[in-house]
Design a protein that fits this description.
Number of domains: 2
Strand content: 25-35%
Structural class: alpha+beta
Distance between the termini: 61 Å
Number of helices: 6
Largest sheet: 5 strands, mixed
Helix content: 25-40%
Strand order of the largest sheet: 3-6-5-4-15
Number of strands: 15
Shape: elongated
Order of helices and strands: HEEEHEEEEHEHEEEEEEHHE
Length: 236
């Protein structure tokens, strides 16, 4: 017991600073106490909520930076403190529908997905028209040169018509925050036997840059006063 108490007292000895070979050392391990504690970031699902938080000045009036990290993620944080660390106050993550790309699905499921998860435009209507002409039994035939397809589909009880499959198609799926315009990008529409339909992305990911630019533009417009007063900075 006495031995342990003695070791404890020795551990209370003030550290000494030693210089050797141009380097400075301490005789005991030291732990730096952060001048600012971490905070639990507020998690929200919209850009409007992020704007409301900034305008409220609820927590502080220090300048903050908004980082458009991706089409679905935006973070708000403050400047570096004395230990070169920053705190994230708000994390905005878009609430998105479940959209399937790069995989075939039934005509029925594809029809529902297209109508509920895509913004309406001319190509969307064209695709819906083609999909609605396909019957689910094995009566779909294809003439495929690798670029365009021609599918033979039953158009009535006793007649068969030819429906051209448009490619590529320009569609606007919901892939970013609903407050901003959904970026339009090109897709390859493919059909195969069994009334299976698939959408394959064909823009090389350019839509992501467009979506992030739309988010930044939305924030710049709605926080114009705060940006002018140098209370908010935006990067993407």
């Amino acid at each position: 017991m006495l031995k342990e108490f003695t070791q404890y007292l020795l551990g209370l000895k003030r550290p000494e600073i030693v210089e050797a070979n141009g380097n400075i050392y301490s005789t005991i391990n030291l732990t730096q106490l952060d001048p600012e504690h971490d905070v639990a970031a507020i998690k929200i699902r919209s850009l409007s909520g992020l704007v409301d938080y900034v305008k409220s000045n609820f927590d502080h009036e220090r300048p903050v930076m908004i980082h458009v990290e991706s089409p679905t993620s935006v973070n708000l944080f403050d400047s570096l403190n004395v230990v070169n660390d920053r705190r994230i106050y708000v994390k905005a993550n878009a609430l998105l529908p479940d959209i399937t790309f790069e995989r075939y699905m039934s005509r029925e499921n594809f029809n529902v997905m297209l109508q509920s998860c895509f913004v309406g435009n001319e190509d969307k209507e064209r695709v819906l028209k083609v999909i609605s002409s396909i019957i689910e039994e094995n009566s779909v035939t294809q003439n495929d040169d690798g670029v365009s397809q021609r599918v033979t589909a039953k158009t009535g009880v006793a007649t068969v018509g030819n429906a051209n499959v448009p490619n590529p198609v320009a569609l606007k799926p919901f892939r970013t925050f609903v407050e901003v315009g959904q970026p339009e990008s090109e897709f390859i529409l493919r059909l195969k036997e069994g009334a299976q339909v698939g959408l394959f992305q064909a823009d090389g990911g350019a839509w992501e840059l467009n979506a992030m630019a739309n988010i930044a533009e939305y924030l710049e417009f709605n926080l114009a006063i705060e940006i002018k007063e140098k209370k908010v900075y935006i990067i993407d």
